[in-house]
Design a protein that fits this description.
By secondary structure, the protein is of the alpha+beta class. It is 24% helix and 25% strand. It folds into two domains: 56 residues, no CATH class; 206 residues, q2cbj1_9rhob like domain (Jelly Rolls). It binds fe (ii) ion.
Length: 293
């Protein structure tokens, strides 16, 4: 091991330097051109080094998130198994005051360091002109869970997956659930919303949404007749989400795999910030790269 890579807890290395040194030790010149498996490995090692005090965390909130164990993002009296059973049977579950309050603050801090982009599907609706047309407007930041800059979201994903993947008495496929996509969304004002829609058919097992700040109604619908007609729906449930609320949505691979139709209404006042954690093979590109959702 070279002298540069000798680290101690008394002299914490900056994250970038630790990453460079580690890659050099492994003979890797460009980590961005490595396989997904390597990127997951690298992010895991950096997270562990921060957790154990060898690398400087961004702030105390990041360190707090990294030290959370399986299921510790939830308050102790949150009934995770019951929520997942409801999702298995009904296709969705809402719960208020489910998240540990420190999680929301850590996520707010993380988003402050990211540049969100506007995704405008009001001007360019998804499936425009069809019965499955979806209008959507908000700011967003989507990336793989192992990317730099989303350490807190990754820690939240790992904590959730650590607990949920144990609940195989509900469905054995839960053991495979590990979200690979981080999706921050900010609904800025009363113009921002998503009309009734199902999430992507390629999503796998479970979608997990955390409301970080702000409040808005989320509505659940069923089709009157044609399952592929979002213009003829009846309301079956609605919940006012707020900071510390969570929502689970069933996806293919869990229960009967059917996805429920849901609508995200504009924020009640000011803005609303959420985090979507999903397991999907086709991680969403940034709006600046394409207008496709
Ligand atoms: Fe959705």
């Amino acid at each position: 091991m070279c002298a540069e890579f000798t680290i101690t807890k008394d002299h914490k290395l900056p994250e970038e330097q630790f990453s460079l040194n580690l890659c050099r030790e492994l003979g890797i010149t460009d980590p961005n051109r490595q396989t997904t498996a390597f990127k997951i490995f690298l992010s895991s090692v950096i997270d562990a080094a921060k957790r154990e005090g060898f690398v400087q965390p961004k702030n105390e909130h990041e360190l707090y998130a990294l030290r959370l164990g399986a299921g510790e993002i939830f308050v102790p009296d949150f009934k995770l198994e019951k929520a997942l059973w409801q999702t298995f049977v009904n296709g969705y579950c809402f719960a208020k005051k489910a998240l540990d309050p420190g999680i929301c603050q850590a996520l707010i801090d993380e988003v402050d360091g990211l540049i969100l982009e506007e995704g405008d599907h009001i001007t360019h609706p998804i499936n425009a002109g069809s019965s499955l047309e979806v209008k959507q407007l908000h700011e967003r930041y989507y990336c793989p869970v192992w990317e730099d800059g989303v350490t807190v979201a990754r820690a939240v994903a790992n904590s959730a997956a650590g607990a949920i993947s144990q609940l195989t008495q509900i469905d054995t496929n839960l053991s495979f659930w590990w979200p690979n996509e981080v999706g921050y969304q900010r609904y800025r004002n009363y113009h921002d919303r998503i009309s009734p829609h199902r999430d992507r058919r390629t999503d796998q097992i479970l979608a997990f949404t955390l409301t970080i700040a702000g409040s808005a109604k989320v509505k659940i619908y069923e089709p009157y007749a044609d399952p592929d007609d979002y213009t003829k729906l009846h309301l079956v449930d609605e919940v006012m989400t707020e900071s510390r609320s969570v929502m689970f949505l069933r996806a293919p691979g869990f229960g009967n795999g059917q996805q429920v139709i849901h609508e995200v209404c504009p924020p009640e006042e000011d803005s609303r910030l959420i985090l979507n954690l999903r397991m999907r093979p086709d991680i969403l590109p940034k709006p600046s790269e394409t207008i496709q959702s």
